[in-house]
Amino acid sequence: MKTAIVTDTNSGITAEMGRKLGVFVVPMPVIIDGKTYYEGENLTQEAFFQSQMSGGDITTSQPSPGDVMDLWERVLEEGYDDLVYIPMSSGLSNSCASSMILARDYDGKVQVADNHRISVTQYASVLDAVKLANEGKNAFEIKKALEAAAYDASIYIAVDTLEFLKKGGRITPAAAAIGSVLNIKPILSIQGDRLDAYAKARGMKRCQAKLIEALKNDFKERLKDADMSKVRVGTAGSFRNSADAEAWRQEVAKAFPGFDVIYGNLGCSIATHTGPEARGIGFYKVL
C-alpha cells in the first residue's frame, strides 16, 4: 500500500514545507475586503499582517468542497492507494465534519482523521502520519492511531490585543475596551476540541510567565505517569518579526531544558482571530 498524507495550512505547514515532507497541503481561504485569498498561494504572512494592521475587513472560511475533492482526486491519480486527511480540530471548525461527509464517496480510499489538534500539535500529527505511512500502514490504520492519541496534547495561547477577538465575537466590545485600558492579556487553552479561557495577566511579560507555568503544571499533573521520551514541547506565534519568534522559542527552551523546542508560525487563518504578536506553548506525544 502507498498512502498519502494530506493536511491544511492551519498545521503551520506551507506548500513548500509540504513538498519537503512529502505531504499535500490544502490552503486555508482568507477573505480580505471581500476578496478570497489562499494562504501560501497568493497570500503571504507579510501581506496579511499589512492588511490586518491597516484595518482591512478580514474573515475566514473553510476550504470549499470542490477544492478539497480536487486535491484528493489528484493525489489518488498520482498512484497512491489511499490517503489520510488531517484537518484542524472539529471543535474549532466545521471543515473536519464537512470533509468526513465528502469522504463517503471514496469507498474508503479517503480517511479523515479528527484528532482534535491545531498549529504545532496538528503539525506533530502530520509527522506521525508520515512515519506510519513509511512503515507501511494504510489510511484507515493511520486514522485510528491518530485519533487514539488525540488528547495527548495541549496548547496555551496569549494574544497581544483584544481587538481581533472582539471582531470575531469572542468577547464583548466593553470587555475589550476595559482590557485594553488595563493592558490585560487573555490566555486561552485548547485541550482536545475545547477552546476555553485559561487565565489573564497584565502585560505580555507576565503572560509569557503564565504560559510557561501552565505547561509546567501539565507536566506535573497530566504527564506525571507518562513516558517522557515521547513528550515534545512546541511554541507558535503570529510574530511579525522573526527575531521575536526566536526569542520566545529560546525563552521556552530555557524553561524546559533537555527538550528540543520547535517553533511554528500561526497561519493567517488563525491569526485572523488572534491578531499579530500572539504566542503559544504546548506539548504533544509522538507515536
Task: Give the structure's gist in a few sentences.
The protein is of the alpha/beta class and 287 residues long.
Notable traits:
single chain, 287 residues, alpha/beta, Rossmann fold, Hypothetical Protein Tm841, Chain: A,domain 3, 6-stranded mixed sheet, 4-stranded parallel sheet
Descriptive account of the structure:
This protein has 287 residues and is of the alpha/beta class. It has two domains: 3-28 and 63-148, Dihydroxyacetone kinase, domain 1 (Rossmann fold, 3-Layer(aba) Sandwich), CATH 3.40.50; 153-285, Hypothetical Protein Tm841, Chain: A,domain 3 (2-Layer Sandwich). It contains eleven helices and 13 strands. Strands 10-9-8-13-11-12 form a six-stranded mixed β-sheet, sandwiched between helices. A four-stranded parallel β-sheet has the order 2-1-6-7, with helices on both faces. Helix 10 links the parallel strand 11 (231-237) and strand 12 (262-265). Helix 5 packs across helix 6 (139-148).
List the helices and strands and how they pair.
Blueprint: E1 3-8, H1 15-21, E2 24-26, E3 29-32, E4 35-38, H2 45-53, E5 58-60, H3 65-77, E6 82-86, H4 95-103, E7 110-112, H5 119-134, H6 139-148, E8 153-158, H7 163-167, H8 173-182, E9 184-191, E10 194-202, H9 204-220, E11 231-237, H10 242-255, E12 262-265, H11 268-274, E13 279-285
Parallel strand pairs: 1-2, 1-6, 6-7, 11-12
Antiparallel strand pairs: 3-4, 3-5, 8-9, 8-13, 9-10, 11-13
Helix pairs in contact: 5-6
